[in-house]
Design goal:
Blueprint (H helix, E strand, L loop, with lengths): L7 E4 L4 H13 L6 E4 L3 H9 L10 E4 L7 E4 H12 L14 H19 L20
């Protein structure tokens, strides 16, 4: 069972690399608490309503304290860094990327995002997670 206060990673549910990344996060998640929701989900739409600046978002979004008054969001490269920090262990070495200015990190993130479907494919619909992890997916 997951904690309603646990962080949530919003991701592009039809993106091939995004789905593979979620599968990797599940494999390396020592805490077993990070939850997931596709950007197309009702949960994500509720987050976007609370944060109108996300209206046209096409990026991963790390949501801390979801639905609470102290809800915090990180997008693009900051969200990726939050995931690395959450995973801990050897992934923390990649946090050295923080020395790169956020604007440059986000520019690189956006360049990669622009070709992600062409390089890694696209699903017609968001894949359904397996029964062993389904409870960690909101609106699954």
């Amino acid at each position: 069972m997951t904690d309603d206060r646990a962080p949530v990673l919003l991701y592009d549910g039809v993106c091939g690399i995004c789905n593979r990344s979620v599968q990797s996060i599940l494999r390396f998640d020592r805490h077993g608490t990070l939850r997931f929701a596709a950007l197309e989900s009702d949960f994500a739409q509720a987050v976007i309503e609370r944060h109108p600046e996300l209206r046209d978002i096409d990026s991963m979004v790390f949501v801390e304290n979801p639905g609470r008054s102290d809800e915090r969001i990180d997008v693009r490269s900051a969200a990726a860094l939050r995931v690395l920090s959450y995973l801990g262990g050897p992934f923390r070495l990649l946090l050295a990327a923080r020395i790169i200015p956020a604007g440059l990190r986000d520019w690189l993130y956006d360049r990669f995002a622009a070709v992600r479907y062409r390089w890694f494919g696209r699903y017609d619909t968001c894949p359904i997670p397996g029964p062993d992890v389904r409870a960690r997916f909101l609106d699954a």
